[in-house]
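Sequence in, structure out.
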Amino acid sequence: MKAVLLLSGGLDSYTAGAIARAEGWELYALTIRYGQVHAREIEAARRVAGALGAARHLELDVPLSKIGGSALVGDGDIPKDRPLDAAGIPSTYVPARNTVFLSLAMAWAEVIGAEAAVIGVNALDYSGYPDCRPEYLRAFEHVAALATRAGVEGRTLKILAPLLHLTKADIIRRGLALGVDYGLTLSCYDPSPDGRPCGHCDSCQLRAKGFAEVRAVDPGAWP
């Protein structure tokens, strides 16, 4: 069984890949350089792809930064110390990012004969992004069934989101049980040039909260 894994190099995509691998999927990792200000995550993605034993790791350039509309592509400052229960969609939302990424995964899956795309989205401990919701993923599966030759021939692409209904603490527990080395990952939206996490963006806060609830030391944290 082949699956395309959308791999950012962060905690969630690594855990999603580890779960899929444990379930018997052969992983083909896909990492997108989209003009993200935290481009150091690409290095982490390479480390994670190696650790997962990916059959192939494909890196694509899709410069969403030219469209703009998000702090993650340099359109404004990365928010710091924002309450995690704050209302509204934060400025780190990248317009249509998961739709673009899943479309690329769908295309590659059709070429290599993969039956699934794996994505590490989460509908509980997340920052309020609309393209992390279950109804969105169901809708994209419907699109895949209509938009591809594979779908027309009855080989519908599955969208696997094994973290969808887990808290960040639950995600970390699953990963640790599978032997995931979170020291390979980078979750920060605004790391320093040497890769030090800022500790204050939404992603850093969620990660710290998860490890605290698990009562485990984050190997990716800097002193």
